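Subject: Protein entry, chain in single-letter code together with its fold tokens

Area: Proteins and the way their chains fold up in space.

Attached in line: The record itself begins immediately under this heading.
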Amino acid sequence: MLGYFLSTVLLMAFGYVYPAYQCYKEMEKNVVSKEQILFWCRYWILVAVLIVIESFADVIVSWLPLYGESKLAFVIYLWHPKTQGANYVYSVMLRPIVTQHEKEIDRTIMELWCRGKDIAVQFMRNGAYYGQTRIFEVLRYVSTQPKKKKKRERQSKLVDPPVA
């Protein structure tokens, strides 16, 4: 057992850094392979799904022995050149599910987008109202304060008048 810290570091290295570098190298080639680009797109789609699942699974099953090691082995399986598991998992598992529910997913995304915009507009209105109210309160406070005499006037009163 690697332990939480070591398995997390290895997951970052082999699940994110190394695949990102391989993806970079593929994109920077003079002749880009469409199949390799599709492979890396599939990989990153699966990683995004895994991150969402992981946020819930970590709470529920992180106590299981070899949980961190299993996550590490799975991400290596996804990108390893001999297995290229990303192609298999994407084609056999993820794609059929997403294809079947694509319309509902699109509708839900659109609804969330609209709700998010409405909430943002409401926050902006509330913020503008709050800011305007505070500015007027400050101006009202400043205008009700007794005027202070100018510094020169105060100093001239302190100096004795010239003797004639």
User: Anything to note?
Assistant: The first helix runs from residue 4 to 27. Residues 104-144 form one domain. The CA atoms of residues 19 and 163 lie 91 Å apart. The chain has two domains: 4-100, 104-144.
